[in-house]
Amino acid sequence: MKNTIKDIETILNENLNRIEAFIHSHPKVNFLFGALFEAADGLIRSTRDTAKNPPFIRNSMDVKQYMGGILVALFFGWVVPAIYFYGFLCVIPKLIVSFVVGVFVVDVIWVILAGEERINEGGFVTCLFIPAFLPPQAPLWLIGVGAAISILFRNILGGVGHNLVNPALFGRLMLTICFPTMVVSGWQEPSTGIPTIQSLMHGVDAVTHATPLIAFKETGETASFLSLMFGANTGSLGETCRVALIITGIWLCVKRIANWRIPIAYLGSVFIFSAILSAIAGKTVAPPIFQLLSGGLIFGAFFMATDPITTTYSQSGKWIFGIGCGLITVIIRGYTPIPEGVMYAILLMNLLSIPIQSIILKIKYRM
Amino acid sequence: MTKIKRMKKAYKKGFNLIEAYPVEFSETVILVKYDGPVDNFSFSFPDKKVEHIIVNLCPTEPWALPNRAVLRNRTHDFLNKLETVRSKYFPDSHCHVVVNHHEATLFNELNQYKAGANRIPPFAKGEYLHLHTIKPVYPYDAPVLIVKNILGLDIAFGQNAAEQGILLLDPQNVTGIFEYYIKENEFNTRLIPISGTGLKDNKILKVKPGTPLKRMLELYVRTDIKYRVFLDGLLNGAEVKDLTQKIDWSTRNIVVVEERDYKSLFPYTKVNELLFTTSLMGELRRCVYCNHCDDICPVNLEPALYWHCYDRGEKHKARTYALEKCIECGLCSFICPSKLELFQVIKECKSLK
Description:
The structure holds two protein chains of two kinds. Chain A is mostly helical. In chain A, 66% of the residues lie in helices and 0% in strands. In chain A, helix 4 runs parallel beside helix 6. Chain A is globular and about 70 Å long. Chain B has three domains: 46-182, Rossmann fold (3-Layer(aba) Sandwich); 190-275, Roll (Ubiquitin-like (UB roll)); 292-351, no CATH class. In chain B, the strands form two sheets. In chain B, strands 1-7-6-10-8-9 form a six-stranded mixed β-sheet, with no helix packed on it. In chain B, strands 4-3-2-5 form a four-stranded parallel β-sheet, with helices on both faces.
């Protein structure tokens, strides 16, 4: 058995080497397919590069594992619960559309036209975010447009490492501007209880009109915390099952892929500010625990706000970033007609992180 | 009166290399015969009065010489030598012996010696000897950190500690000074550990300084693979291109590592195979602000800032971010998931006057 695997490995390795040599010896082929081959090859083979400068050994963690960790966390955090609540046929086509449009069309064309070296795996993370913060009954084309805008925007700004704001959230912002009714309608009742084949495939066919946050805005009623926690409530596709999101988010923090300071600062400040404001203003501001468990807050705090490139580099800046996100979220939820403010909060703080970073550096190093 | 100081918060993390790259040396010490010209032992005694002697018995790199090779189960002998050297050349100085906090037997032996030295009249100077324990985490035995941790004194990186009256003594040099200057015996061999994935076996060699590297390694290197040879550790050591180079009295260790300059399939299933090689273990990417480098930095710097300065073409600005504190341990480059050459950038920025 072991020998067969070894034989297959050698054959595969040799053929890949042959393809690589062929691509590199033909400039025109290289122009069109070089980056594609590099990306596919990079997934199954290690690099040829060796350390030329000290230190001559390197740690095994690389960006691929980093992004892979986020993908795994997102998969168990929202894809698996969403299949349970809304059905296979609701979730999987959206993912396929998002990946195909975002990564395999927009990113590939961009890489070929711009002559970049390889396709970045960060695109998968962005495209996995897109369906998660749209309603379960959002049309497929909406998701395709969102993915395309996100990836295009990220690439225009210079690709992974140079993005100013979280590209997935920027895509969602554009969708909110262009199709304002579509991103806030089409909520679906999740199917709960023991799953049947019917519910796992299609979900339940019941459309409602309000998420808990909208309901609170209109009537002042808060949903039960238990149903919010386990996802038996309406909401965007990926944000409802908070237990799974919290568990995978903590896993990300333990693996040091996400920085633990941001979720703690974000959730803590939402709790504190909403406690203070609801004590002062009464019913206009939702009570703290309801705020924590509703909308996309948990999803945003663990997965969107922790996107490392768009936060500050300094560790102390991350506290300020998280607290700022929390404050803006509570204010938008409480004092504006918009029911949910996580997206705006994170986008605003993404932009503010640059001045925060430079001020912190000035204080720290006394320039 | 043992002094077990707790780790001060002067520095953060470091990296436990010994756990990540376990290296086992074989028990026996092998003598390498060489008839060519050899260097004689010499030790440059500092001009200034020495107040503190620090003897480090806690190597933090797996490829460093293990204690047992120097002590050879005769800790008391070694300490007697140390005492003789101290009283002859550095009177009125304090000796600080640093031990790995896991090595309880060694620590007990040292304590016994200290108690005994207090009791027996001719040696009633037990208070000159101080024991310290540290965690075997790289780079806690770097001069800057060890002085800071044990004496609470600040020395700058690259500054000679002797200017502040501190002498950092290699355990082998203690033996050397004792044998050569006090006993006036012949002393012309040095213990050099050789290790790494490029060798058939990890050995401790007894070599006459002046011996070419080729002579030392020829029996032990693997011939079926490509390898590269490094002096004084992999993290901040130097590569040896020319194997006829001779080793000298300052050589601490030799590491021979496999050169993995070809692609291997499914690297995630064979991380162990790739780990102790020169492979970058990933592709070169842009900085993703992951904060791994400033989490690991032992002196609380933020190495990615230097990278950003360098990337923007503002090398001169790097100095404003406390660059002079860097102790050049190389951990930032080691940990970087984007495989950036942070250490090289830091060196370049430092060389800019």
